[in-house]
Amino acid sequence: MEKLITYFKLSKVELGKVIFPLKEQVRNAYLAVFIVVTVISLFLALVDWIMSSIVSLVV
What we know:
This protein is mainly alpha-helical. It has a domain of 41 residues.
């Protein structure tokens, strides 16, 4: 039982060392991910459209 209590005490100490991100940091990371995903999606849509046009011309 003493080991369990020690474990929880040490866990609490370790949680005190954790630095959680600020609201602004989370928002900036969200915007960065959203922009990158949007750009990649548009690029893949363009490549898909070009490839399907080429296949349509060949067939």
